[in-house]
Amino acid sequence: MPAATDALLPTEGDAAGLAVDSDAELMLRFQAGDRACFDPLFEKYKGPLVHFAYRFTGRRDVAEELAQDILVKCYMGAASYQPTAKFSTWLFRIARNHCLNSVRRGEHRQVARPLSDAAEPAGGESPEATLEGRAVQQAALEAVAALPEAQRTALLLSRTQSMSYEEIASTMGTSVSAVKSLLNRAKCALKDRLAALVENVHEM
Questions:
Q1: Between the N and C ends of the chain, which has fewer C-beta atoms within 10 Å?
Q2: How many angstroms separate the CA atoms of 73 and 45, rounded?
């Protein structure tokens, strides 16, 4: 690592020291002028960002476009990155804000994935089982989409990105206790909604 970046890394015992990871080091080297260091970050996070954005829009093509926009913002805004949190926390804060702004402006309306887009049934699976599986999948997507924005974001960061309470709190700009409350409410809401929807599916 170039010596110029060593001074930017928190030292052992620093409160920010826990945030240092290989991604943070790559970003600092990128800041220092090593442009090739952004390539592994792009490859590592493009898939998770598409998945994250998809849960806001319900459309794969739009999610891919948003993920590209987020990575461009990350690239262009590299100078603002400070290793006071994990790189992924900083990146998904950008992702959250970008997705929310896009939806709120009406550029990409949040929708649930239609049943016709579901994958073809696996070999040997009956048409009835396939239809039921697709209906349950649709119900799950609709249930997540119906959550209030803060609950949905906390749930997605927890389930799809495996972030800790602390990382989610940092990404969302809130407290750990608030994150725990959001996740608990989201899980309760999903449990109630899915129970009713699955019951309806079985009655079809």
A1: C
A2: 13
Residue length of the chain: 204
How many domains, in total, are found in the chain?
2
CA distance linking residue 81 with residue 86, whole number of Å: 10
Any idea what the CATH number is for the domain that residue 2 is in? 1.10.1740.10
Query: Can you give the CATH number for the domain in which 134 is found?
Result: 1.10.10.10
Let me know whether 99 and 142 are in one domain: no
Answer for the pair 70, 91: CB distance below 8 angstroms, yes or no. Answer: yes
Q: Do 90 and 160 lie in a common domain?
A: no
pLDDT tens, per residue, the chain with 204 residues: 443 444 344 433 333 444 447 999 999 999 999 999 999 999 999 999 999 998 888 888 999 999 999 999 999 999 989 888 789 999 999 999 998 888 877 655 544 444 334 344 444 554 444 445 566 666 777 788 788 889 999 998 998 888 899 999 999 999 999 999 999 999 998 888 777 665 555 555
The owner of tokens 């598409």 is: 50
Using CA of residue 151, residue 152, residue 155, residue 158, what is the dihedral sign?
A: negative
Residue 69 to residues 24, 33, 99, 108, Cα–Cα distance (Å) = 20, 22, 10, 13
Joined tokens for residue 91: 């990146």
AA letter at 52: F
